[in-house]
Amino acid sequence: MSAVIGWFAEQPLLVLMIIMALGFFVGRIRIGSFSLGVAAVLFVGLIISAIFTNYGHPIQQLHIVWVMGLTLFVYTIGLASGSAFFRALRTKGLGLNLLIIVLVLSSAGFTIGMVALFKMEPIISAGMYTGALTNTPALAAVSNALPSLADSAAVKAAGSVDAAQSLPTVGYALSYPLGVLASIAAFALFQKVFHINHQEEAVRAGVAAVPIFTRNILVTRDDATRIADLNSRIGHHIIVSRMLTPDAYEIDPHLLDEKGYPEEVSIDAGKMRIASVRDVIEKGMIVCVTGTQDALDAATEFLGEDSHVDLAYYDVTSGLRRIFVSNPNVVGVKLGKLGLQRKHGILITRIRRGDIDMVATDDSRLELGDRVRVVTSKENLTQAARILGDSYKSLSEIDVLTFAVGITLGLLVGKIPVPIPGGGVLELGSAGGPLIVGLILGALGRTGPIVWRIPYSSNLTIRQFGITLFLAGIGANAGGDFLKAVTNPASLTVIAVGGVITFLLTSLTLVIVYKGFKLPYGTAMGVAAGLFTQPATLGYANDQTNNDLPNTGYSTVYPMSMIVKIVVAQVLIILMVKMGLGA
């Protein structure tokens, strides 16, 4: 058996793929309504790595793998969540970030109390704290703070500064796996307690796939209404695509079927036209409008009544077509500024992004991979396809140049040293830097001719591959340390206290954000995952919700959480050592 494991240990890439495959298999196993999802990859990695280490063949050479996976994951989240992040900051984002500061400080105070109560070794306990909060940069910050404590009893008891610097890793390895599991357990528990329906939450938050319909309305309102003013008048957003004036049709009121539909309609199709925001809706017109059910009901009540004349059926001059957006020149620019209808007679009525349909507005910005429904003259459909791109093949590719430039900028930002009180240095690292740059570039969309965003499907693919690489790589790296630590009976206290810290902190976050801030539970899970700066719990939250609410919460608090935990972890180790805790 040892020889077989030894052979596999020499094939780290093969082992990595096995961990990923088994992890996804385990993650799909459901116990009731609970499943680990992508987070199972981490635990499979820990188990396989521990087995290999037990046979004397630790898995090597995977550090760069999980760093690369983490970088890809956070950067693509930033690109996708940039606009939502800055919108959130203008609403409840500031309050959420203040909450994060309070919770991190409170957890540090709780840790000091537990260390004093159970007489735990302070340096290992500081590592336990960073593991409970699942934050590797904070662990590095604790180790970096130890040389300044060389004359303390705790460091001297370890034998040397070098020996002392290995102790935080022990505490981290013990509490990190349970930290992930405790957060997921809290997510599942409060999801049951609060009777969460993620689909209903997504609908209320406006991120669900709400059906879009088309309706023909006979205008009976006496006063004329400008199309440009219609949405503000009805309090909903609709788009008027076709108009037929009263002199262009004739219905015989004596030839109606049992449902009231006209059996004979005389229409001068040449007078039907594509609507423009400059047009005025007048009594007697028939208009074709697109929107949600509620929006169409409001428009019908305001304008008149349902018309049984289907304008699309009788329209012989204009065409309707779904077109893929693959031309980067139209991406990231407001539709109103593009002026497609004004310049080319092309009206976009719907935008489909992923699985979500949206009614187009002048403020809508197209993204690569969007599918739009256009109404234009039949002879103009080819030009519409040319302007928007309509190349499915090009959507299967990404602009590697801009993608690599964005990640490079993120990694450089992550390496910027920021001095902090006490002589330490703060770095956002390969997670914080790419996330912040991704958020900024995602919000910008484009800079001149450079389009920063990538097609929606490509973003999801890279994001999932990145999180899987990260979880498999870090699990394979940490399994050996975890095995050594967990076989020590004294480690049970560290594991238990770390698990309690994680569970309580996660629970407080969920309750306060969901009940106090009145935000969706999906967002609350994202905030909790952001508090722990933990991609595994974010992956679990995304699996549960199947929408972008967790990503919004995660990206809103992640930068602040990263900074605060790094600073607090260093202050914590200094306080515990100088207070003589554990002695």
UniProtKB/TrEMBL annotation:
This is Aspartate/alanine antiporter. Keywords: Cell membrane, Membrane, Transmembrane, Transmembrane helix, Transport. One of its GO terms (molecular function) is monoatomic cation transmembrane transporter activity. InterPro entries: AAE_transporter (IPR050144), RCK_C (IPR006037), RCK_C_sf (IPR036721), YidE_YbjL (IPR006512). Belongs to the AAE transporter (TC 2.A.81) family. Residues 306-390 form the RCK C-terminal domain. The chain crosses the membrane at residues 6-27, 34-52, 64-86, 98-118, 170-190, 400-418, 424-444, 465-486, 492-514, 521-542, 562-581. The keyword Transmembrane applies. The lineage of its organism: Bacteria, Bacillati, Actinomycetota, Actinomycetes, Mycobacteriales. NCBIfam families: YidE_YbjL_dupl. It is a multi-pass membrane protein.
